[in-house]
Design a protein that fits this description.
Elements: E1 6-10, H1 14-26, E2 30-34, H2 37-47, E3 51-55, H3 63-71, E4 80-85, H4 90-98, E5 103-106, H5 111-138
Parallel strand pairs: 1-2, 1-3, 3-4, 4-5
Helix pairs in contact: 2-3
């Protein structure tokens, strides 16, 4: 596996937060956890994660608002954002993508499949970063 990636997981459901934090850490990632939207935003600013996994419905600030602020105020355009939600309506998904999320995943989901998906995300990020480096070298 390549160098460890920084991952921020934000969810107000303690069991899911513990499981994702543990499993992502076990894969070698540097993981920070937040229980509400305000804490997620603060950690995103300090930690500058490669990947943010944000629950949509959190106390103090919802995942949509955190996503907007991460993209706008924190200028973390290269960070990959996955919104998690029990809401599976097309309008909810659309709102998440309009807020700046790269993906919208509905709960419940299989942990193993989600971890495989995270691995794929990091492979895409590595490819994108390599393309960016090549473009800078050509300029």
């Amino acid at each position: 596996m390549s160098a460890p990636r920084r991952v921020l997981v934000a969810d107000d459901e303690p069991s899911l937060l513990r499981v994702l934090t543990f499993l992502l850490g076990k894969q070698g990632h540097e993981v920070r956890a937040a229980e509400d939207g305000e804490e997620a935003l603060r950690l995103a600013e300090e930690f500058r994660p490669h990947l943010l996994i944000l629950d949509v419905m959190m106390p103090k600030m919802n995942g949509y608002d955190v996503c907007r602020k991460v993209r706008g105020e924190l200028q973390l355009e290269k960070s990959y954002i996955v919104l998690l939600s029990a809401r599976a309506q097309a309008a909810d998904r659309e709102m998440g993508l309009e807020a700046g999320a790269d993906e919208y995943v509905t709960k419940p989901f299989a942990s193993a499949a989600f971890l495989d998906h995270v691995r794929e995300i990091f492979e895409r990020i590595a490819g994108r970063d390599a393309d960016d480096d090549a473009m800078r070298g050509a300029a």
